[in-house]
Every structure is written in C-alpha cells, then in structure tokens.
Write a structure and sequence with these properties.
InterPro entries: Cbl-bd_cap, Cobalamin-bd_sf, DNA-bd_dom_put_sf, MerR-type_HTH_dom, MerR_fam, Meth_synthase_dom. The chain is α/β, with parallel strands linked by helices and 297 residues long. The protein has 2 domains: 121 residues, Methionine synthase domain (Methyltransferase, Methionine Synthase (B12-binding Domains), Chain A, domain 1, Orthogonal Bundle); 121 residues, Cobalamin-binding domain (Rossmann fold, 3-Layer(aba) Sandwich). It is built from 13 helices and 7 strands. Helix 12 links the parallel strand 5 and strand 6.
Length: 297
C-alpha cells in the first residue's frame, strides 16, 4: 500500500496542497493518518479519491456536491465527464484513478473513447504517452505496484497492435523500407510498436523484428531486405558505458542504411553519432522525420 505526503498528492494530482487541506478539513474527502511526529500521510484510497474529485471539479462540479458521492458514483461520474476530446489533463487523471483501482473495463472505456474522438495517433501522443510518463514516475516512487504498471502497459500494447492491424498493407517494393528492432536483452517495446504503427500509417513498409534482436544478425537482414532506414529504442540496454560502442558497431554493419536511435539512453550522456545516424529526441521528432522520408512511388 502506498504512503503519500501532501506534497506527493500535489505533484501527482496537480491540486495545490492548500486546496487539498481545505477539501480535507471542510468536506472530509480524505482520511489521512498521522505519524508519531504528527505528519499527515495518505494511502492509495486517498490518492484515488483525490484524482476522481479533481477530475469532476475541473469539469465545473461543486466540491460540496462531489464530496457527497460514493466511490462508485465518483467513478461513474468521471467516465461520463471525460467526453471533451481536447481536455487531455482530465482524461489522464481519470486513467490514473482507474489504474490505481485496477479497473480494466474503465481503462478500456476511457482509451476507446479517446481513440474514437481524437483518432489513434493523436490519442497516443496527447493522452497515452503523457499518461505512461506519469505511470513511470509513480512506479519509480513506489506509488503503484508492478501489477498496475503491467496492466497499463499491456492494455496500451494491445491497442497499438490492434490499430496496426487495421492499416492497409504496403508492399516493400512500393515504399521506403524500414527495419525496427530492440537490442538483445531489451524488452521495453511500446515505443517501438508505436513507431511501427506510425511508419505504416505513412505508407512505409516495416520489417518488424521486435524484442531481443542479436546485433550480429542485422548485417544479414540488411543484405537481404536492403532497408532505407533502421530504427531502434535504447531504454535499458546496452549498459551506459557500451552505448557508443553499440552505435559504432551498428553503423559499420549497416553502413548503407540510415540509423535511427531513440530512447532514454541516447539522452543521458554525450554521444558521437556516425554520419549515417540520427537521434530524434522526442517522439514528435521521430514522426517529423518519418514525414520527411516520403515513400517512393
């Protein structure tokens, strides 16, 4: 069970600490306990309730009315109010609350509603991506457990795979050819899956090799497939001290292709990129790069 200070609640929910105290004292929406040194601490239930209350109050509901709702009434009201496709902050708060409750049907409904209103790519960029960033912070601080993080990751993975399957197939001889893979030992696949979707949606052909790809196999892949570009995401692999060597080796083995290196390991140190390599810092940079490489006709 999580244990939060009021500053934790402020950073997670976006609600100022003095407002949280007022809601607590005047309306009793939270039930903190005090430590032996008389410091308020809050539990998972307090955080879930605060996120739901903040979502409804952000929609214009009066706190005096919201405070009277039961947990089930709160959850139902949040789903009903998250209908503005451009109110990303409210949608993200609703998703966080559903994650903390491990409410998979509600997560599904919220994501499907956003996709229906915004389109898939816009939903990923405006809702799912910042939502996953918040989940990452919560996981690092111990505010959510591994099961909750896995629930979210696998649900979004399913959405990306399903959306990719709806795209019109592109023949390799009629478009730019890409190879996408993760290094050997790397399992963080969501960014690569979305890159696969985005490229296919733009008319590129993608040879998707997925997770845990040995680098010594890539030279043979390049010889047979002759890709225009090769993309990978470096999140946890290789070790920081080996990233430069990995880049250099890949550039030698795939000298005729443009190499696209993305991920946290590319921005945590100063690296020297070979002439045939690029490093889009943000996913928006990668999408812009993909747009520039117009498919061959």
């Amino acid at each position: 069970m999580g244990q939060f200070s009021i500053s934790d609640l402020e950073s997670i929910s976006g609600i100022k600490a003095h407002t949280i105290r007022m809601w607590e004292q005047r309306y009793g929406i939270l039930q903190p306990v005090r430590t032996t040194t008389n410091i308020r601490t809050y539990c998972d239930n307090d955080l879930r309730r605060l996120l739901n209350v903040a979502t409804l109050c952000g929609q214009g509901h009066r706190i005096s009315k919201v405070a009277q709702l039961t947990e089930q009434e709160l959850a139902s009201a949040v789903i009903s109010c998250c209908e503005d496709p451009h109110d990303y902050a409210r949608q993200i708060s609703a998703l966080l609350a559903a994650t903390l409750e491990m409410d998979e049907p509600r997560l599904n409904k919220l994501l499907n509603g956003a996709i229906r209103q915004l389109g898939f790519e816009e939903t990923v960029m405006r809702v799912a991506y910042p939502f996953l960033q918040r989940i990452g912070v919560l996981w690092q601080t111990g505010s959510i457990n591994p099961a909750q993080e896995h629930l979210v990751s696998n649900l979004i993975r399913q959405k990306i795979v399903a959306a990719t399957d709806t795209l019109t197939p592109v023949l390799p001889g009629e478009s730019r050819r890409w190879v996408l893979f993760l290094p050997e030992g790397e399992l963080h696949e969501l960014a690569l899956l979305f890159m696969n979707y985005a490229l296919r949606a733009r008319g590129h052909h993608v040879l998707y090799l997925g997770q845990n790809m040995p680098e010594n196999e890539l030279q043979a892949v390049c010889k047979v497939y002759q890709p225009h570009a090769i993309g990978t995401v470096l999140t946890a692999v290789p070790e920081r001290c080996q990233v430069q060597s990995y880049i250099n080796t890949l550039a030698e083995r795939c000298a005729d292709a443009t190499l696209v290196f993305y991920g946290p390991l590319m921005s945590c140190q100063k690296l020297s990129l070979p002439a045939n390599a690029v490093n889009p810092r943000l996913m928006t940079d990668f999408l812009a790069f993909a747009d520039e490489l117009q498919p061959q006709v």
